[in-house]
Specification:
By secondary structure, the chain is mainly alpha-helical. It contains 4 helices and 2 strands, in the order αααββα. It is elongated.
Length: about 120
């Protein structure tokens, strides 16, 4: 459990410190997700919303851990994650691969929730 706690701490510290997204967006995206899920619930019902959310979290974790592994815990450039500077890690903004991957995960989650549920 100690190693898991350390790894979670690394992710949380990076989340707090990175400049890949504006600070207001780091908080606002939670409200975007909650609002989207509420709308999804009213349009398609509870079961499909749960399936959508579960799939979206699953795909998001795949994206997250792919970036985490390929960037060696956010210290090395990979795809659109660019590390600049010799004094510590200063990543640039996400770009042409990260956000399309999220859009694809939303679309796949929507399709799965519509096909799988009763």
């Amino acid at each position: 459990m100690n190693k898991l706690g350390r790894e979670i701490r690394i992710d949380l510290d990076f989340l707090k410190s990175h400049t890949l997204q504006p600070k207001w967006y780091k908080i606002f995206k939670i409200f975007i997700l909650v609002g989207f899920l509420a709308g999804y619930y009213f349009l398609f019902g509870l079961i499909r919303s749960i399936i959508f959310f579960s799939c979206f979290i699953f795909f998001s974790l795949i994206i997250h851990y792919t970036y985490r592994i390929k960037t060696k815990k956010y210290t090395q450039s990979w795809l659109d994650f660019v590390v600049e500077g010799d004094q510590g890690v200063r990543p640039n903004k996400f770009g042409k691969f990260y956000y399309p991957a999220l859009v694809i995960s939303v679309i796949l989650s929507w399709v799965i929730s519509q096909v799988v549920s009763p």
